[in-house]
Structure formats: C-alpha cells, structure tokens
Amino acid sequence: MVEMSKLNTQSIIKKGNNTKAALIRSGVEMMTTYGYISSNIDSILKQVGVPKGSFYYYFKSKEDFGRQIIDNYDSFFAHKLDKHLTNEATDSSLDCIISFYQDAKKGMAKYNFDRGCLIGELIQEESLLPDGYSMILENILKSWQKKVEMCLRKAQEKGEIKENLNCTELANFFWIGWEGAVTRAKLIKKSEPLDIFIKLFLSGLTSSVA
C-alpha cells in the first residue's frame, strides 16, 4: 500500500510537471509571436487544455508566468549559443558564428517568420512591462553578449580577426544589430535582414585582418 501510494504521488508530480512545461512552451510560442501584452492567458490555457483555475496552481500571476517563460527561453537560447559558439569540432571561430546564424535562420523559417526572439519582442514593450523585467532582459542580453565576445576572442587568438579590435564592443554591436535584423525579418517574413546583417558583420571583421 505504501509503495502504491508512492507511485501515485510520483505520477501526480510527473503529470503536474508536464502540464507546467506545456503551459510554458505555449507561452513561449505566444509571446515570441505577439509579445507579452497581447498574449492572452485564456488562449494559452485553451491550447494546452488546462482549466483557468489550474493556471494559478502553477503560477501566481501573468507576471510570474512571464518571468518563468523568460527564464525557460534564456536557458534554451544559451544552450543553443553554447552549442554553436563553443563547438570544438569547428576550426574557425567565425564559422561558429555562421553556424548559429544558419540555425536561427532555419528556426525562423520553420514558423514562417511569425516568431521572433522573445527577448527582442519584450524589449519593444519595455515601458508596458511589469517592474523588474527591464533588468532581467538586460542581464540576459549581457550574458549572451559575453558568449559572442568569447567566441570573437578565440577568433583573435587564431588570427581570424585583427588583434586590436575590441571584442567587447563588437559583441555588443552584434546583439544590437542581430535583434534588429530578427525583428525586420519577422516584419517582412523573409531572411534577407539576417543575411545582410551577418554578411556585413563578418566582412567588417575579416577586412580588418592584415
């Protein structure tokens, strides 16, 4: 009886974790498409098949839901960046950046360019977001920026880009331009802004090599 009770408890916990994960996935889909303000909780619940009362079992509020969505997205995207930018099987560090660009481009095309970057979407709504969101978004961008900076430093060590280039500023510039390119690609429903940005960003680096 004790063993059966333990199994039932584990089953309930697993089901609860699966439901919460499904709500977060649906929230990511909704917010990368429509942003935070326009994302409707009722639509997310309907998609997942969860009653409204159950939503507040997993999340205190839409603000709490949004924070957990941001955290989930950051974990996913940081892993994607690490996968490409720290790939030891790739000889060229600049090729690592190209690999990330190609993967991101493929991901946007998969959803017909209807979904953008969650962080970029939320930044556009900054003045309407709950208190504390701006700091969270800025810290995430800084962490992503650091990953690109480290990749560029490796490119310097390999002689792919000039030694006197400021990798911190270049990484900052990368994310300023990349987020703009993603937003424009979503607007026009094609990859041209991504293609133009990465082409000019990389040509600016390689043209500086003596």
UniProtKB/TrEMBL annotation:
Keywords on record: DNA-binding, Transcription, Transcription regulation
Residue ranges of DNA binding: 40-59
Domain named HTH tetR-type: residues: 17-77
PROSITE patterns according to UniProt: HTH_TETR_2
Gene3D superfamilies, per the entry: Tetracycline Repressor, domain 2
TM region positions: none
SUPFAM superfamilies: Homeodomain-like, Tetracyclin repressor-like, C-terminal domain
Coiled-coil annotated residue ranges, if any: none
GO MF assignments: DNA binding
Protein name: TetR family transcriptional regulator
